[in-house]
Structure prediction request, 369 residues.
Amino acid sequence: MKVWFLLSRFEQGGMERVQIHLAQGFQSCGLDTSLVVGSVMAGARQIVPDAVPLLEIAPRSKLAFPFGLWSALRRKRPDVVFTTANDVACLMLLVRKFAFPKIRVICTQHSSISGSRRSARGISRVKHAALNSLMRRLLPQADRIVAVSNAVAKDMQRELELSLASIDVVHNPVVTPEFSDLMNQKLEWPWPDHESPTVVFAGRLSAEKRLDLLVDAFALLSTKLPARLLVLGDGPRHRWLIDQIEMRGLEDHCRLVGFQSCPLAWIHASDLLVLCSDFEGFGNVLVEAMACGTQVVATDCPYGPAEVLAHGKYGQLVPCGNAQELASAMQRCLEGTAWIPEEVLKKRAGEFGLRQAVDSYLRIAGLDD
Prediction:
């Protein structure tokens, strides 16, 4: 049985790590499993284990993706295709309809549809509206539809007029068998000591991650107690973030260490992880932090954090866009008034394991026989 995880492009992100984990889990069940991508972004190939086949079908231009997909389908003939991007899902369903009717197509939704639509501007907003219209027509033709959280499933129901009963929910596989070894790896700490508590941010440095809110909140926090800010990641707002840190005179308290293919050791060595996004699909980094025993503060954004943190039971949730509330929550955590025991966090994180996710996907795809 041949299985594909189909992506438009492969970057150094959390969603890509999820696909790698799932591919490895499927391989452990004896399935011929590959990652099939339009193009591989710079530096991203290094995060893919050698044992996981990576097929690049449109390396020179995204316009060549439909032709690359058609050619690869004819040559490889997969039995099951899992899609991740919405435009790719629509394309795969159309191609399946006209030429490859025997392929099972499972469409997975990893992010908030409404969040992306609301944040879009200009021509991008028009494109979102057109894609959503296409999805309303085509997604019901998929063999199964999967959302990574219950909240994302409800968002799909509202945005695409789907029946909630037609959407399966499978949480992302975050805790893998090698998790403990990875979080205990040695690293080069960017300060000479660990005397001050460290707040860590891990993610893409992009607008929806609200780095402005992070800097504002940390600046407020630093007036209340000594703390440090560690930033893991790269993206379009990298230079902007450096300028903001320098403008506020926080250079001695902040370190940007760039993209880390495995952020777990950094998160484990920190005291508090902060997620301050305007929207998320799931929030893998929240589970990673809990599995490391690291405290969590997150914005109560659509649609992942509240579900992952059980509406505040396993970490503080604060309103979106409010730097003062975020700073206060960070302070309560670091001062110990909102501290959650490490064993409680790790037990909760264990609910988001690889085995649970793989078993669910195998059942959904009809591969559990």
The mean pLDDT is 95. Residues 123-138 form the longest helix (16 residues). The radius of gyration is 21 Å. Residues 222 and 228 are 8 Å apart (CA to CA).
